[in-house]
Amino acid sequence: GKSLKNKPWTIAALNRIGFTWKVKDHVWDDHYAHLLQFKAKHGHVNVPYNPPYEPDPKLVTWLNAQRSKYWKLQRGEESHLTPERLRLLNEAGVDWTPTKNLWMSRLEELKRYKEKHGHCHVREQKNDPDFPLAQWVRRQRVMYDKHVAGGKTALTPERIKLLEENGLYLDVKEDKWRSRYRLLLEFKEEHNNVFLAEGDNPRPMLKAWAQDQRKEFSKKKEGKPSTL
Hints:
3 domains; Helicase-associated domain-containing protein; mainly alpha
């Protein structure tokens, strides 16, 4: 079409109905609106990776991109984060420290996992969508054990308190026992029995655990110290 140069009324008409001249601006505004919605629902803006935020699955990726632009700004590098957008993100309460944000995101994941499964023993299986969470939980336990033993770790008193409040540090052995017991229940549902025969058991560690339970039961019957 012809240039709008000599037709200012056309520009004014489009502005009046909220026409977006830069599509990228519109995308940014949409993500920011979803960020505020997330905050209204959860009380913070630590958007998790898993599960993705359904109204805007790309919100966490967008938020991390804003953090990258922020740190470029701090280093004096070229950044597309405008002063106005920085102000809006600060008003929303964005935490500019990625590691801290990731830690809180994992904690939120752990809370949801516990609500769903009733425990914090996340199984480490590479093909499981909870695998990143399982690795994170294992690292927290390693650091916690070191802390209990008097060693120095990256766990702050605040984080230790949060993890304990969410039941991560109930007796780990008991947590593992419950995990094996749940596997046994799954086996029973599938096979209508709990007879873990040689050769047809797809879970060899479960068979070993069942044998351990029998040994511990025998000890208990004989009046010997037992874990049961």
